[in-house]
Amino acid sequence: MVILIAGAAFLATFLGGLFAIRFKDKLHLVLGFSAGALIGVAFFDLLPESIELAGEHFGVQFSVAIVALGFVLYMILDRFIVGHKHDDECHDEHQHHSKRGALGAGSLSFHSFLDGIAIGLAFQVSTAVGAVVALAVLTHDFSDGINTVAFILRHGGNRKKALSWLFLDALAPAVGVLVTFFIKIPSYSLGLLLALFCGFFLYIGASDLLPESHHAHPTYLTTIMTILGVLVLYGAVTLAGI
């Protein structure tokens, strides 16, 4: 049962990425949707889940503080480590974009890995709990694939590079599920990791994807796509929780 769900997560993520590649010529609209989807995942999925898992052990205020920490840490990485470049050199500019793309896609892939761990841990509690968590993961895996591809394309990556990251992102939840067969991770530790990635995703969505989506493009359409991304994730997470 768990293996089948891991396979479904792989398929859903990969199809989402192929969808983004297919509509590469409408990248500004894909980026707009992706920004909304990432912000939606942060607010409607990662934040509540992190508070539920870690809040009882550490307190809600501490969990929210970890979200802020994630935001600040990603900002530091983006601006002072990955973002260090010489603007007058094309090679350095390309390398800068490549590093930012890898950082963002890597964060998304590690989040997918945590999703797989969440599925495995939930099934250790009971089949019913596992099924609910798996449904929640599957509902946003399609957008995870879109987000990964959109981020690589946004930072100058080609189709081959986007597919490579997409494959890694799609494989990550399956690996996460397998890991739980051999080790046990305290739920509160997973909750803190989810809070950290909540901060990461808020930064990526609001500071990178959102501004780029409407840069030199009609703001009206990209704004609609961003709102749609938020609403789709809200609906998906809400339905998964039924």
Concise summary:
By secondary structure, this protein is mostly helical. The chain is 86% helix and 0% strand.
What does it look like?
There is one protein chain. This protein has 8 helices and no strands. With 242 residues, it is mainly α. About 3% of the residues have low confidence.
**Cα Rg:** 17 Å
Tell me the major beta sheet: none
What class do helices, strands and sheet pairing give? mainly alpha
Q: Helix amount, in percent?
A: over 70%
Q: Count every beta strand, where a strand is a DSSP E run of 2 or more residues.
A: 0
- What is the residue-mean pLDDT, rounded to a whole number? 79
What is the total number of structural domains? 1
Euclidean distance between termini CA atoms: 20 Å
Which blocks of ≥5 consecutive residues have pLDDT under 50?
84-91
The succession of helices and strands, N to C, reads HHHHHHHH
What overall geometry do the principal axes of the alpha carbons give?
A: globular
Task: Estimate what percentage of residues fall within beta strands.
Answer: under 5%
Total count of helical runs of at least 4 residues: 8
Which properties best describe this structure?
242 residues, 8 helices, globular
Topology:
Layout: H1 2-22, H2 27-58, H3 60-81, H4 90-125, H5 127-154, H6 159-179, H7 187-213, H8 219-240
